[in-house]
Amino acid sequence: DGGITQSPKYLFRKEGQNVTLSCEQNLNHDAMYWYRQDPGQGLRLIYYSQIVNDFQKGDIAEGYSVSREKKESFPLTVTSAQKNPTAFYLCASSIGTGLSYEQYFGPGTRLTVT
Amino acid sequence: SQKIEQNSEALNIQEGKTATLTCNYTNYSPAYLQWYRQDPGRGPVFLLLIRENEKEKRKERLKVTFDTTLKQSLFHITASQPADSATYLCALPNAGKSTFGDGTTLTVKP
């Protein structure tokens, strides 16, 4: 099956610890994205990558870091500098970042930091 | 600054009726607009894309309109069913990426 996988589905961490969320796609898509969603709110873009070894900050990049060493993988690290990390994190991919490409989303990771 | 607004209140309708959801935008001149469906605890799923030169687009029971003068898109679900209950998000292109609205939660009651 083609698609995007995110793991784990639920993640619990203590405050002050860095945590890495996994995102893998086998759709052969060039572009990948990370979004954060808080209860009752829409998606906010954290980082995106248009091609391997390149990525750009989105609207809320502070406290997060990413890497894009392989086309199929785009892991997100939530660092201890992120003030309010508890949220639902969604990874997405698209064929490109051109004008009309639809995004395919993974199932999400719900991160709880206490 | 660029802004997207969807129906601020949740929408509750009776099965069989037509649901109409609104997406308004300001300070944008998008070449296209997308609609997604999101079920609780899951990632959004793409539904429809409409381009600026298209007034209307249909897919089965779904219809989307795009009025670039009013800066508005309307999303209609005809003959609604309880299975249509979900949150619906509109998305606009923004400098090589997309910006999403906060979504409208639709509940269809049997």
Oligomer: heterodimer
Radius of gyration of chain A in whole Å, from Cα? 13 Å
Arithmetic mean of pLDDT of chain A: 92
Distance between the termini of chain B: 41 Å
- Portion of residues in helices of chain A? under 10%
> Which pair of chains has the greatest number of interface residues, and how are they split between the two chains?
A-B, 25 and 22 residues
What is the global morphology of chain A?
A: globular
Q: What is the strand tally of chain B?
A: 11
Elements of chain A, N to C (H/E) = EEEEEEEEEEE
Q: How many beta-strand segments of chain A?
A: 11
**Backbone structural class of chain B:** mainly beta
**Percent helix of chain B:** under 10%
What does this structure look like?
- Chain A is an all-beta fold.
- In chain A, 0% of the residues lie in helices and 49% in strands.
- In chain A, a hairpin with a 5-residue loop joins β4 and β5 (43-51).
- In chain B, a hairpin with a 6-residue loop joins β4 (32-38) and β5.
- Chain B has strands at residues 3-6, 11-14, 19-26, 32-38, 45-51, 56-59, 62-67, 72-77, 86-94, 97-100, 104-109.
- Classes of the chains: A mainly beta (114), B mainly beta (110).
- At the A-B interface, β5, β9 and β10 of A face β5, β9 and β10 of B.
Short overview:
With 114 residues, chain A is mainly β.
Feature tags:
heterodimer; A: 114 residues; mainly beta; seven-stranded mixed sheet; four-stranded antiparallel sheet; 49% strand; B: 110 residues; five-stranded antiparallel sheet; 11 strands; globular
How does the SSE layout of this entry go?
The complex is a heterodimer of chains A (114) and B (110).
Chain A: E1 4-7, E2 10-13, E3 19-25, E4 31-37, E5 43-51, E6 54-57, E7 64-66, E8 76-78, E9 87-94, E10 104-105, E11 109-113
Parallel strand pairs in A: 2-11
Antiparallel strand pairs in A: 1-3, 3-8, 4-5, 4-9, 5-6, 7-8, 9-10, 9-11
Chain B: E1 3-6, E2 11-14, E3 19-26, E4 32-38, E5 45-51, E6 56-59, E7 62-67, E8 72-77, E9 86-94, E10 97-100, E11 104-109
Parallel strand pairs in B: 2-11
Antiparallel strand pairs in B: 1-3, 3-8, 4-5, 4-9, 6-7, 7-8, 9-10, 9-11
